[in-house]
Amino acid sequence: MSKVTPMMQQFFDIKKNYPDTILFFRMGDFYEMFGQDAEDASKILGIALTSRDKQKDGGIPMCGIPYHSYQPYLVKLLKAGKNVAVCEQLEDPSKAKGIVKRGVVQVVTPGTVLDDAALNSAANNFVASVIKEGNEYFTAFIDISTGEVYLENSVDAAETLGRWSPTEVISMDDLEIKGFVCSTVDAKLTDESSAKRLQEHYEAASVKSLGIDKKGFSKALALSLIYFKRLMIDVRLKRPVTVAPENRLVIDSIAARTLELVENSNDGSERSTLFSILNHTKTSMGGRLLKNWLLNPLRERQEILRRQEMVEFFLYRSDIRWEFQNLLSSVYDMERITARLLAGRCGARDLVWLKNSIGVFPQLKELMNSSGNPHLEETASGFDSLDGIHSVIDHALVEEPPVNLKEGGLIKEGYNKDVDEYRTIRKDSRKLLMRIEKEEKEKTGIHNLKVKFNKVFGYYIEVSKSQINKVPDYYDRKQTLVNAERYIIPELKELEGKLVYAEERLGDLEYTLFSELRDTLAGYAEMIRTSAEIVAEMDVLISLAESASLYGYTRPVLNEDEDLVIKGGRHPVVERNIPESYVPNDLFLNDTDSRMAVITGPNMAGKSTYLRMSALVALMAHIGSFVPASESSIPLLDRIFTRVGASDNLAGGESTFMVEMVETANILGNATEKSLIILDEIGRGTSTFDGISIAWSVAEYILKEVKAKTLFATHYHELTDIPASVPGAKNWTTEVREWKDEVIFMRRVVEGTADRSYGIHVAKLAGLPDYVTKRSNELLTMLEKNEFGADGQPKLARTAARERKVIQPMLVFDDSPVVDELKNLDINGMTPLEALSMLDKLKKMAEE
Prior knowledge:
848 residues; MutS, DNA mismatch repair protein, domain I; MutS, DNA mismatch repair protein, Chain A, domain 3; seven-stranded mixed β-sheet; six-stranded mixed β-sheet; 30 helices; 44% helix
């Protein structure tokens, strides 16, 4: 490379500290990118790629974006998985001597972005920090956009990460976690240094006072704090919440995906998910909390009952529910505003939104207090309406402040006397200029004299060439034009000084005052967060009540006798998305004679819907929601397992059947008698006899060893003998009626067994050619009659070949004693034993 310019050398010096990061290099009104950064960014952003002067800088590729509207470009790069370092000019270019000083002021990664434009308002944006100690993984999930921290440990890091879906995963070691790429953070942490870092961050006396009882958690959380500091992100996190299996119903990533809790299996969106049905929240905070509840249901009876009672109250007091919803519609995303406030990155509009949100808090508090509901009254006692914060912001900021904080226009009139004075000077400047212009016209007699302004010369008096003979001596010439002369006078120069000074001072002073306000409010962040959390919970409970009202849900009973009873159960998503009326179904599982339901029946008759319905009703009961059933009684479960559908992991070397067996092994190894297991078509990925054997033994193992409540759907009709062989199982089937060559699926699940699967009927519905379905029925008839030839094919195969006039190869024996013996056989008169003896004899004759 040829010798580069000093400015490009500055770029390279800064860039070497950020090798895996796109550097936004501020040059005037643009952020420029160079070299590989430019090539990568131009493709992602769809902007033109140019190059620096080849003579000076060797033809370095470059591209640029406007600095005042960089956010959309930043969002695109983050969504493409890129990290971005923002390098600013650290001094005024007009006052700089030589190259302008520049430096990186922030590094933004997909997991640490704070801008709303780059965030999903209804989803958390987690960074996962993973530490491995022994055979256990300790993970801290941190959302810096809300301040939330969750701690969880397990022996399967991939499963834990899969359930939380972090945007970034970091580790102190070079960990290999299936399905995730971990970025290694160079840090050396001991138990003592980790504890100290946490104590300093939280200003806590000890780590135990934070509720952290395992040293692995301290290291994981401390590592994340180191990472944020290196990215120059000033965070203040909420107290960590330990997610422990004893106080929650565990939903692993497979179950969450199978049940389509927050993402559907088609395109990964929220459409047609349980979340989409239950989400009537009015705030972004409520939407995120509802997702959290769905992925982390409770096992704490008293808390579930508290939620149920509040949902019930809001259900029957629709007047209060509607009034709450109306007020909540005015609440912005206070959690994320507070995070930006603490990081020193919130704008004036953020604070106005915060003020407007707090503006409805007194009414919310009054509603709680006057509701007559003891839970709401108790909630109100811990709810701070934040009147003081509202007053401070309202007094300081205008209602519609500009986006740019350094251009003025932020501070309300009357807040600061200096701001008011500078604004008066600016406001009155036009009048003063008009006065000077009028006075000079009168003094000089030059009637076309004009007082004007431009950025180069400032304020000046312009006189046409025809009138310059009237110009007095105290006019100082500034510029000569073709048709005019420009002058300056002492009075105008003095006014210009005041105006320029006022403009500069006004912008600086308003920004200083705003920064002071921001710092002051940051001291009340915990109060704001506490009130925001209460608002979010109210929003979710009201949303659940709204769902119950709209869709006819009922309150489930939390029983202690371990029976799982659902009467008139409906799948909450399917019933909202089918044109015909939904057919409800019942379920009864207990710990004695009905731990397992073996479910047979045709494809498309509703088995899979029934299985998922049962799991979703149980899950909804564990978040405190009402459920889609006429009546239900649900025990406290510890886990819900699912093994449904066909999927593979070819990239990982696992076939569909291997994935099925791995997931089944996980269920058998981790389920307990307090679990609910949903199994659909175990053993279908291998040969028939293999599959039946595996499915039977899996069912037998669950019944004898695991003893979990299980719904076991299968097309292997042989499995309907399980209830007769192993205690604790019952047969159920999807009801089907046949009428005039038509098959009618009744969508009802009843006790009994199915003798047919009607797969060919479903194939016909799917649009397979008539030849295929007709031929399938012919072959099925032969197979069901066990009509096979000596070659192992159905006899119909040879018949069909003759119908197509295809000549089949034949073995011809001339003058063979075997042929003579066959001709003389009385087949109809032979016993099976005589036939076998004759077959052995013929075989020996043929071999001679």
